[in-house]
Fold:
Amino acid sequence: MSLKILEGLRFKNIDTPIHRLDPRVKLLVSLYLFVIVIIFGNEWGGMFTISIIVILVEILLLKIGRVHKAMLNTLRGVLPIILFITIIQLLQLLGNSQPIDLILYRAAAYTFRFLAFIASFSLFFLTTTPDEVGNVLTFMKIPYNYAFALVAAIRFTPVIADEIQQIIDSQKSRGLDFEKGNLFSRLKRLTYVFVPLMVSIIRRSYEMAEALEIKCFGASKKRTSYKELKFSTIDFIALILATLFFTIAFTARYLNLLSGMP
Amino acid sequence: MSIIEIRGLCFRYSGSEEMVLRNIDLSIDEGEFVLITGPTGCGKSTLLRCMNGLIPHLYSGDYKGSVKVMNLNPVNTPPYIISQHAGMVLQNPENQLFSLSVEGDIAFALENIGLNREEMVKRVETVLKLLRLEEIRKRSPYELSGGQKQKVAIASILALQPKILLLDEPTSSLDPRSAKSIIDALAWLCKDKKLTVIITEHRLDLLVQYLSKLVIMDSGKIVYNDHPRNVFEKISLEDTIIPIPKLIQLVRLLKKEFGFPQSFPLTVEEFVDSLIG
Amino acid sequence: MIEVEKVRYIYPNGVEALRGVSLDIREGELIAIMGENGSGKTTLIKHLNGLLKPVEGRVLIDGVDTRKSSVAELSKKVGIVFQSPDSMFFSESVWDEVYFSLKILGYQSGEAESKVEWALKYMDLWKYRDRSPFTLSGGEKKRLSIAIVLAWQPKYIVIDEPTVGQDAPNRKRLELLINKLRKDGVTVILSSHDVEFIVDLRPRVILLSRGQIIADGPAESILTDEDKLEKSSLLLPQIPLLMKRLAGIGVNPGCLTVDEAIREISSKFKSQKIW
Structure:
């Protein structure tokens, strides 16, 4: 059982030009990249080219943000999904008995598209602290309680992941084998993880309730904020560049500049 | 003038049969360093929760007697007010950190009470310096050791500028070095910053030298409440309700069997001095 | 015999938790693996029943390479009791909890039942056999977690941080229990940073620091060595500390327990009529 996919949430505060960007700008950049990939959806010649371009841009940004390794870990986690997409495409096309190079090309287009799509999200979440995510939500006038719930969920997911690992280790050490058997017996064995996990989560939530009470949670209707969102010159430049890139891609899509096989 | 005054306190959690506190009387003066200890289930954690209002605000039950914390009655004062007079640190540091950076965590409670930003920044800086956390101010909880996490938890409470700090087994999951560094920091805060510290703990060997009062509880009652030297004079060595430090066991036996004349030393250094001057 | 040979282990996040650890554990030994949190203690013990497999080097349990066997199979020989008992329990009664493990390890009905009874009596939990594990006190839960593993009588039993969160009466019980296991010929391996608890057991001590063994030897020589303990972020226990400070006046600095120290100090001072 692998919990590697959650590694990306174990946030480290690193300081790079990407991390320093205003989270609102980063969110917009991620959305731009995401939308670009989406609008090239129905024509896979263009999809192939634009996905490669977007991936290259994302690799560059992830590299500058020094989170490319974390990204690779996440990719390893979603590898089964990527393989699934590739295989489904291949099978579908083989059924249509088309030329083999076309089949491979189309399957590659869909795979790259998915990669570009995953990376656009990861770019934002790997370089933005959950605290900043909270700030962005507050900026978007979302009530603090909801913003807090989201931040706390992100904060405690890795902690729970450790807990699950600990329970699995304990149960394996008393003879339970999680890998053996058919799907049904595997699912049944998960209850031996589920019960201790629930007990621990309930206990933890009591302790968290105490801690929140002690830390005056909800004491003031006018909650203040330690971190201020500040829009600097660099943010401004980043915003212009990102918008420019988006506009070009958008134009290219509707003038069909990238269509067809390269 | 006592800063905490407890008279005839009895408590039973709702849904439970057993009285957890039975007729507790305790007064604590400003600037004291008090250890409340005893076996699991003796009521020490419950007693702390009565001092900062978690009982009866978060946990309800049968409540008799009176508690006064800096002349406030926790029963009819909201916990967030009490927290600014008597702040509390819990056992597991992990569950007390809600932000993804040290400074964010220290600011968290201040944001909640709606403190203006200027004052907030000032307080965060003061506390970071006080507990020497400046260098790790940007780190996330996943990059901190257990000891550092607990220090951050203490800092985040101190930012509320309470006069009293309550700590519920703050070092129980820490290794000895980290535990010692937490305890030494508390002793310093008590002595130099006039903070009243009330702590529940099992590590008597690291703590006794700093204590003004050692309170031992058993089955919901206070069985000893005195200066540690006096408690160690009286308590039976066969009594296993608390882990009696080895040094104390040694001196007790030296006194009993060989007529060692000095009063109880609280540190090895003190004992060595009394032996070889 | 357990042979740990030049084991290196790196977690998926890149942390190198063990950096070339070699260690032989012979039958009947009592061993304390000590070091600060994060020194690699838990990573090391997880190698003993194959929960983790070495990236380099190998671990042999009675000659069997842990990479060539399953955790379930290895656990029959090496029983590990982890720090938090709560991460084990899911049954409705104490009895069921112990019985469950025996069943999945393949014990037949009659035999399994007698083993449950034996283990619960050994751990003084027989009177709680019908209680729900979740209603036990902290000390009782700890004992139940040991009983679960003890029930199939593994040759080696590993207890991770036995004293964390345990109060004075329970510490005393655990001390007596470990001595009893040892007398009954079980090889006991403890992982702990609790020097005051370990010193009274007088085990062979293995000091870990940053994934390497920095000392391996009898308690008398390791738990009296301030520099080595310092490197593992541990503190000298009170009695060795005292004897060290008194070494100038000629007491034996190798004493570990209160009784030994009393004999030393009283003979020294009585004879000199200091008080």
Residues 69 and 104 of chain A are 28 Å apart (CA to CA). Residues 4-128+231-254 of chain A form one domain. The mean pLDDT of chain A is 85.
